[in-house]
Specification:
With 423 residues, the chain is an alpha/beta fold. It is 35% helix and 19% strand.
Length: 423
């Protein structure tokens, strides 16, 4: 197959791969990778891999030029991961048993990682991650505590963290299904030492427990509840006109906050955000036949840029593997189903609160084009594409994200002053 390694060497390397050895068990899965009219087949049984003799449960297929892009060390955007190609590259198709693919997509991705590693002329074994290393990075000095927040008449114990004790406050809002740990590496960046950075875990996320007597799996987020929780936390923590920073789900709510309550903020930085995108539901995220601890991180993996740092990307995946039952799906219910701001983003008043929109080059869920189109509807909004970054900018590549964030913060600082705040 053009681009891919010879089938026998590819299967042999998969058979001795330490990652697949850990994932191997009593499960059987058979699949085929097809490039043009050529293909390589894999059958895993009890941890052993062989050719599957054409009895594939599903087939990943694309013309040779598409796979050639995928096999580059740093592929062009939307060609860097199988789920990205599936959504944004029409020539790429997954045919066959959808459930089997969802159950074993982490195995498929690892097999393709090994194929790429060998195709690039590297010797076996393939490293655990093909991403570049983060290198030395400081540890943030973080203090945590709980505050009480009531929303819709329900009392919540909300866990929050703070890095820094003085300076303008940045309120950091985590993404769907995750928690405030996403900001730990950004909080450690010495270039941000002049800021107080505050994050909190939504109810059911991270260290914020479900409310008393809540039914497991019943978490559902919607716009009004999300806004009430954020404003309730700001009041409980004693914040006064913070800069708010979010991405993806929390980037969308940044736009809503800019519309509803601009005077409560000194600036809003909405990453990976736009007024509405269809087809954002991860259909297998709450299916009892699919292991969420494998599937959801695999979904997330494809949303990160290939340049994102191995250690940081591993952190993101680990956070997502630890989500409670139905929590990720309950968050998606907010921005994939209920939230739609197309009728109101044009009425956002940026003279009352500056709005900056930043979106990663490799984000295939909320593309840079979609964010730019939304920013164009908002008088005074500022948009920038972040090259080399995906859907989780502050978590997947904190050093590079800070390069984009710092000029925005400097501009906000130049334009206004803020009173002292407490957490």
């Amino acid at each position: 197959m053009a681009g891919f390694p010879p089938a026998a060497a590819w299967r042999a390397t998969c058979g001795s791969d330490p990652v697949l050895a850990v994932w191997a068990g009593g499960w059987p899965v058979c699949f085929t990778v097809r490039s043009g009219d050529r293909q390589t087949s894999f059958e895993f049984i009890d941890g052993h891999v062989t050719a599957n003799n054409g009895k594939a449960q599903f087939i990943l297929m694309a013309p040779e030029p598409i796979w050639e892009k995928f096999l580059q060390p740093f592929p062009p955007r939307h060609h860097h991961a199988i789920l990205a190609m599936r959504m944004r590259v029409p020539e790429f198709v997954i045919e066959g048993d959808e459930l089997a693919f969802a159950q074993y997509c982490h195995v498929v991705r690892r097999v393709l990682d090994i194929g790429k590693w060998l195709a690039l002329g590297n010797p076996a074994p393939a490293p655990v991650s093909l991403r570049p290393a983060l290198g030395d990075w400081p540890m943030a000095e973080i203090a945590g505590r709980y505050v009480e927040v009531t929303a819709r008449g329900v009392d919540h114990r909300i866990y929050c963290e703070q890095a820094g004790t003085s300076g303008p406050t940045i309120l950091c809002l985590h993404t769907a299904g995750a928690d405030g740990r996403q900001f730990h590496r950004l909080m450690a960046d010495p270039r941000l030492a002049a800021y107080r950075m505050v994050s909190f875990d939504l109810p059911w996320h991270g260290k914020s427990p479900p409310p008393t007597n809540a039914i497991p799996g019943s978490w559902r987020l919607d716009t009004d509840l999300y806004v009430e929780l954020i404003l309730g936390f700001i009041a409980a923590a004693g914040l006064e006109r913070p800069i708010v920073l979010g991405a993806s789900m929390s980037g969308e709510i940044c736009l809503e906050l800019a519309y509803r309550d601009p005077d409560k903020f000194s600036g809003i930085i909405a990453c990976e955000a736009c007024d509405r995108i269809e087809r954002r539901r991860a259909m297998w995220a709450a299916d009892p036949r699919v292991n969420q601890a494998y599937f959801i991180p695999e979904w997330i993996t494809g949303l990160m840029a290939p340049q994102s740092r191995a250690e940081a990307a591993a952190d993101v995946n680990w956070h997502y593997a630890q989500g409670g039952p139905g929590v990720f799906a309950g968050d998606i219910a907010f921005y994939a189903d209920e939230w739609d701001a197309r009728d109101r983003v044009a009425r956002i008043d940026t003279t009352r609160c500056p709005l900056f929109m930043l979106t990663g080059e490799y984000d295939y869920s909320c593309t840079a084009e979609a964010s730019a189109a939304t920013a164009a509807k908002i008088p005074g909004a500022r948009f920038q594409r972040m090259d080399g970054i995906g859907h989780f900018p502050f978590a997947e590549n904190p050093r590079l994200f800070a390069d984009y964030l710092l000029p925005v913060l400097a501009e906000l600082e130049a334009g206004q002053t803020r009173p002292a705040e407490r957490v």
